[in-house]
């Protein structure tokens, strides 16, 4: 609460998170739906329902693309929404190897190094943010969102058995986004949400430093 109170007194530049009167917003409901779908995805994979899993997986990932877009269009970006979006992304991403293990084990074997590298990279970024701010980062940067789109397409393509290179490109973009998250955390002096890029993080830090001088 102390960090949040301090951040509320800082003038936020464009691209930072703005509060709304209520957390009951369409983007938050979409993120909550994605979180609620995680047990269903695991259950469908465990039961061997590959077709239903693909349908639900596609719907869950589509909410990830829609919630951020709607939040920007309707100016409904909230701190809670950023956290829900982050929890949903992590939950779906971490549950996916289980689905591969049960439904597409050959994909899991062939892509294990890409998946493992992404998981280790994310754990390092999350650990750094926890160490510095006491919470996991939820920046939703431009590079991170781009990686999500490519990775979404790549994951569906690889499960359908069409090609594997789109998934690998998505993983490489995701690793790049994770590296940028570490750079953003290094640049910020306090926890922030919805930081578009490392350059925006540097602007926020400079603005906060100028504000504290006065």
Polypeptide structure, described:
With 214 residues, this protein is mainly α. The chain folds into two domains: 17-103, no CATH class; 105-214, no CATH class. Helices cover 76% and strands 0% of the residues. Helix 6 runs parallel beside helix 8, helix 7 (142-159) runs antiparallel to helix 8 (165-187) and helix 8 runs parallel beside helix 9 (198-213). It is globular, with a radius of gyration of 18 Å.
What tags apply to this protein structure?
mainly alpha, 214 residues, single chain, globular
Summed up:
This protein is mostly helical and 214 residues long. The chain has nine helices and no strands. The model is unreliable at 1-21 (pLDDT under 50).
C-alpha geometry: globular
* Count of DSSP H/I helices: 9
**H/E element order:** HHHHHHHHH
Oligomer: single chain
Mean of the pLDDT scores?
85
Number of E-state strands: 0
Distance between the termini: 24 Å
What value does the Rg take, in angstroms?
18 Å
> Which band does the percent of strand residues land in?
under 5%
Helix content: over 70%
Low-confidence stretches: 1-21
- Domain unit count: 2
Structural class, please?
mainly alpha
């Amino acid at each position: 609460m102390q960090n949040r109170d301090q951040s509320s007194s800082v003038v936020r530049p464009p691209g930072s998170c703005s509060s709304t009167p209520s957390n009951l917003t369409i983007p938050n409901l979409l993120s909550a739906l994605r979180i609620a779908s995680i047990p269903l995805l695991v259950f469908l994979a465990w039961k061997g329902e590959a077709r239903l899993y693909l349908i639900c997986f596609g719907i869950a990932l589509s909410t990830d693309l829609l919630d951020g877009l709607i939040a920007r269009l309707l100016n409904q970006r909230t701190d809670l929404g950023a956290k829900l979006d982050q929890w949903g992304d992590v939950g779906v991403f971490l549950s996916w190897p289980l689905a591969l293990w049960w439904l597409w084990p050959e994909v899991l074997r062939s892509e294990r190094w890409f998946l493992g590298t992404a998981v280790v990279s994310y754990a390092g970024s999350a650990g750094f943010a926890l160490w510095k701010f006491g919470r996991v980062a939820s920046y939703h940067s431009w590079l991170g969102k781009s990686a999500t789109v490519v990775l979404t397409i790549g994951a569906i393509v690889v499960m359908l058995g069409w090609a594997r290179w789109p998934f690998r490109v998505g993983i490489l973009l995701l690793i790049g986004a994770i590296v940028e998250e570490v750079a953003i955390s290094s640049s910020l002096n306090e926890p922030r949400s919805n930081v578009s890029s490392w350059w925006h993080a540097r602007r926020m830090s400079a603005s906060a430093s100028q504000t504290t001088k006065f």
